[in-house]
Model the fold of this input.
Amino acid sequence: MRPDQVLRYRIERGLSDKTASSIRSLLRMASKIRISGCVGRWPELAGQVREIKEKSAAGLESLLEQAASRMEKNGFRVFRAATNREALDYISGLVAGGLVIKSKSNAAKEIGLARVLEEKGCRVVESDLGDRICQLGNITPAHPIGPAIHVPVDRVAQIFSNELGGKIPADPSEIVGAARKLFRRNFLQMDVGITGANAIAADTGSVVLTENEGNIRLIAGLAPVHIVVAGIEKIVPTLEDAVKVAHTAAVYGAGQDIGTYITVITGPAEPAEVYVVLLEQGRWEALRENFEETLYCINCGSCLMECPVYLEIGENYGSRYVGGIGVLQSTFRESFQKALESGLDLCLNCKTCINRCPVKIDTPRHILRLRRKAAPGRPPAEKILLGRQKAGPQGEGAAFLIRGAERLLGKRDEALHGWRLRRPLGSVDCRRLMPSATKKTFLAGQRGFTLPGAGTRVAFFTGCLINLFCGEIGDSALSLLRRLGVEAAVPRRQMCCSMPNLAAGDWEGALAMITANIDLFEREGADAVVTACATCGSTLREYPVLLDGDPRWHARAVSFAGRVMDITVFLSGLPGIKNFRGEFPSSVTYHDPCHLARAQGVREEPRALLAGIPGLKLAEMSDPDACCGFGGAFSLKFYQLACGIGSKKAASIAGSGADTVSTGCPGCVVHLRDVLQREGMKLKVMHTVEILEKALTGNRGGVRDGRPAGGKSR
Amino acid sequence: MDGRLVEKAVKSLEERGIRVCLADSGAGALEMIGEIIRSGPVALSNDEYIAGLGLCQMLRAGKIEAFVAGGDTVPRDPAGGESESLSKADRRDRLARALEGAAWGVTGAAAIAADTGSILIMEEGGCSHLVSALPPAHLVVAGAGCITPTLGEALSRCRQLSRRSLNRPLAGRISIISGPSMTADIQGVPVKGMHGPLEVHLVLVREEGKEAGAAV
Ligand code: SF4
Done:
């Protein structure tokens, strides 16, 4: 099977497992407040651990030497395994057979240790209760934190009754009591114990482990042979650092002030032997290719809790490590093919995970970087479309293809002002409601000159979506600016911000457009570059990062990016913005675009602008900054996923009781309109500037179902 | 002694589910332990501080079975075999079985972290580790002098104690304990006592000028 076929299969499998999906939602709801409260009580941990991990990755070679020699001195046997195979062979050589008791260990899972030992004839017992329930009942784990949380209590009782004999009542405490006895028998007969490590302290040569149940402590205290398997990225400079990592994992992973147990093992409990297997597989490659951030991960799982894709399909997103970070790990630790199969294309770039991550790993950015390798394998139609992007201003190079597709392959939906494909085209779903391209693009409709305003002069960065499909948003933006006395130029030759190309891995195309934009807007010489597209705005502001290390362009990119501003931020600073002539008598809920709220930190301005409008009642929805599921090409290629994510958004919107949704990104506007009509909801979706303009000019206009009337370019 | 530090530590420890009693002297501590431990067998870690308190004698006087685990002391073989001839592995095995039958494990503490509410038990051989891990209830007796403001400082204290008494950077084991053993793996219901103790008690002795027992 091709990687994209494997991925589709995994998506299907994830979407069809409703039990697991409801568990994920429940766990998310249950842990959300607990985790954020707990993180608030330990504000200094995240920054400290980030620093520890930066230092560790930068000095990994010498730390590894130091840790290994210190541990040898402490009486451990240390084995450096260059590959998974080496680790497996070494451990197989140590374990002759008998009873092996395991705790949860990412590295053991990574190398597939349990299976290999079982094949050797060992009896392998998982000692984490949830894992043991799954193991005994032959049940697929539902969640990394609560693997058996979906198993009904009477089924669990039955599983342990079968093991112990007798009948255990279907009550969690009774079962735990019985399971404890059963486990104890195992522990007292254990031949070999296997654990991972949360961290390894190089200065003292200590293995540090955290947990709540106490199984790791029993392994560490009772195993005649204790094998620790850990990736070399777990090594940190000092004991204090290592304990901090373990502490942070509990705070961010479980919302616990500290794990019940942190065990620091610095010497074997005689006569027991301790073996430490340090796994190198793929770690050096990650470092060499400047993906050192991926080695900062402390496996707390916090990023998963709010990841829209993970919430939809669970462990099907990722490989041996789960989620977006798991895709990154699999690139280096497994193969690029595995990364493709496990969802390199699924990241929506919503940036939710970065906020949640204690070490602030920029997973979306690294995923974009890796997609570069995927570019040559894209389907021909996609390559042609992307290639056309740089052939003309914002989307115009590909406009004839898009218009042609609508005319030849599309079926118009008059009521919804859009169209759908008659039958699927490549991976594009025919249920997706597409916006119709306007006859004349927004840019083509602009005068070639600007009327001088009273003061500030800005350049308006339009963006492909506004240029081709949502001209009315651009009209409102310009009308607002000009009414408030701002001279707004609209450079005719402006190019796409480059996000579609970056997202598909076409860096060459992207860089051509990026440099063209910098050049063009420099010549424009405006005080600010204003945009009404959240995604364009965030991409433009990332130009310096994208051109990092380019001596010709970097400084220019910095100065350009410094002038880019979301239109709501710019408007908030204008004196006339409160002089409303009309009103907007509606209940409005505001959806935070990912690329405005998280990428640019703009949350307050649009709300304040809306709240100032006479007659307008601002009704907050729950999770206003949760992603709507658009993600550009994502919503075309993975429509079902985009709709699943969108449904959750629709439920939040419905809960607000509002009759209008306002948002700051034309992408969100397009997607939300499709999502809401699917859900049978009759709300209007408008860009914030459209509402503002109507209130400011007093021209409310009629608002037809879902689409404002009077779009001038229509 | 810093009263506010003690107060803060007690608050955090209790938030973690550890039951704390404050005693003003060793004698007071013994009295409190007598109230808490009503039946045996009781396993005591081989710890100077605990030995100095005379806890073992007190328990036995109250007709509660008590034994010291670790060091040279090996619990009596129920079958009546000789202790001296046992191999290290057999001794350990027998210790584990004796602890498995114990109702209480009693240890000292090397440090207590006030910020996280954690008890740090440090030792070289691994006996205190088992005393605090196997029995269903764990009682810690420690002087309030071992309380440090933060977990980081508690670790520094462990380093100092290791240097002083072992002349090594760090002793073989530190167990950082912040509550009773827990699981929520069955339908998310929290249950205590999965693999470790269901109860953790701390008797904190506020004795002026006396250094806490560091179980190394
Ligand atoms: S990437 Fe995810 S699992 Fe790793 S440290 Fe960050 S939040 Fe935790």
Q: What stands out?
A: Residues 702-714 of chain A have pLDDT under 50 and may be disordered. The first strand of chain A starts at residue 77 and ends at 81.
